[in-house]
Amino acid sequence: MERNFETVMIEQCAPVLASLKPAGLFRYETRDCADLARRVKNWNEQLQPKGLRVRVLKGCARTHQYLVYVYRESMLRAVLTDETVQGFLRQEGYHLPAERADCTARLCCSAEFPHEIGVFLGYPLSDVVGFIENSGRNFTCCGCWKAYGDPQAAQRHFAQLRKCTAVYLRLFHSGTPILRLAVAA
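Above: the chain's sequence. Below: its structure in token form.
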């Protein structure tokens, strides 16, 4: 069942629009690839002045499902210039700086989902490493992702992200346009 692109973007990327997170990823289903391309182009034109970008990372012609990546270039750049993050990405086979902000190749060419993508979504590096090392088990708490550090701190952060999403959805459904909801950063 096709869902409205904008609603899915708010549901999955409100914290990115609010500048609480550098990036978000969502699956969007449509049989109209041309419409999706127009939407992405349109949103890029509108959101670029606010520091936001929208990209289709991967699509499947058989299932009509697409992975859409919404990100703040400046926040993502800050994450990816961290030396510890760069060391981790090199260890995972990234050739920096050329692939610094591009996880597309890994999504398209990898047989398995590249779990290091959590770094590109703004998850704490300790949680990304913990997930990979523990194969998704032994986490201290689970919310927007699986956390491997202080469970109380993670729960507070998850609550902040959930509250942001709830507020943005309420505002969006009551008529506030996405362009007004997107914070300039």
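The radius of gyration is 16 Å.
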